[in-house]
Structure prediction request, 203 residues.
Amino acid sequence: MQPFRTLKGIAAPLPLLNVDTDMIIPKQFLKTIKRTGLGQHLFHELRTAADGSAVPDFVLNKPEFKGAQVLVTRDNFGCGSSREHAPWALLDFGIRCVIAPSFADIFYNNCFKNGILPVVVPAEQIDTLLGDAATGQDFVIDLAAQTITRPNGGVTPFEIDPFRKKCLLEGLDDIGLTLEHASAIDTYEAQLRADKPWLLGTK
Prediction:
């Protein structure tokens, strides 16, 4: 998993409440277990008209937000079904950080497992951040310092669980965390083969 340390990138505003995972990546695109290729379908029903053309007024279709890496949105982002394809689609599109007053629990957890930083900020601050994002300028997200630096230089701090912070900084998903104990696992398996070979199908 790609580590997340400091991100400087264009922030895009999405001032919608209760954005669910079907809105993020509609069900008809869930036929793959690959993590790539889903970005083209991100927010499909908002980005794409019935004739297949791009909706010009949707924020991520506007030229000034091309290449956006930060998404600023409202409460309860990622609600609905627990599909992991939602963070996969965001990441494949290029979004590495989502800022909101609150997230659905499963989506929030899935973000950390896929190298996306979900930042929770107080609801009273989100309008300011949405206004800043509307300018199409860069935000700087510093995970180690736990700060968002806005285009005007203002700094917004945020809180994050220390363990999740460590995992993102070091690029550790569930497999990576397990492999940190590879030596101990190898020792255990070698001892198991010696003491109880029948458990492993050997004599």
